[in-house]
Amino acid sequence: MDDLNQGRETTLRWMAEPALSALIRRYYEGDAALWIAIQQAVDVELRRRGVRSGAYHLRLLRRGEGYEISVTPADEWAVPV
Predict the structure, then answer these.
(1) 3 state SS of 18
(2) Angle 28-58-33 (CA atoms, 0-180°, nearest 5)?
């Protein structure tokens, strides 16, 4: 299992599924309560890809009718355990 926070500057990118794109669109239209559901969907996708998420920057970029998800490690913000 890859660790997103191993000091690599790797950014993972993928296009959101239509259902997630709909949530993101509603979020940007003012439904701030959807942020938790969006984060959970990203965490599920990271686990599906075999990545331990840890701390990360999450960007949601409009691409045509959908959204690109961009996840970058944020090691400098992680609290050592």
Answers:
(1) helix
(2) 40
